[in-house]
Write a structure and sequence with these properties.
By secondary structure, the chain is mainly α. The protein is built from 2 helices and no strands.
Length: 99
């Protein structure tokens, strides 16, 4: 009975890791989507606005897009590293109870 409980705990931990991986990927894609929105807004500023400061607004949007993409990428890889470290811990726990 105790071995069955240990296998259930291992399965729950594996599923939790998978959910965390999917959440991390979803967060990265959200950063990417928002970055692309700012990029498209920047591209359309020059033709949309017929004012002198349109170029500076366009550059502001491009800068925001680049910053969002950079922050999202850094965040993704940091969280991915933490997830891999957690997965190693579960792997050691798994070896003890599956044998």
């Amino acid at each position: 009975m105790d071995n069955a409980q240990n296998k259930d705990l291992i399965l729950r931990e594996k599923l939790a890791i998978q959910r965390t991986i999917l959440a991390n990927q979803s967060t990265f894609l959200s950063f990417l989507r928002t970055s692309m929105y700012f990029l498209v807004a920047g591209l359309s500023m020059k033709s949309l606005l017929k004012i002198e400061s349109a170029l500076s607004i366009q550059l502001l949007f491009f800068g925001c897009s680049f910053i969002l993409l950079t922050v999202g990428t850094i965040n993704y890889f940091r969280q991915n590293k933490k997830i891999k470290e957690s997965e190693i811990h579960i792997g050691n726990y798994q070896k003890e109870h599956l044998e």
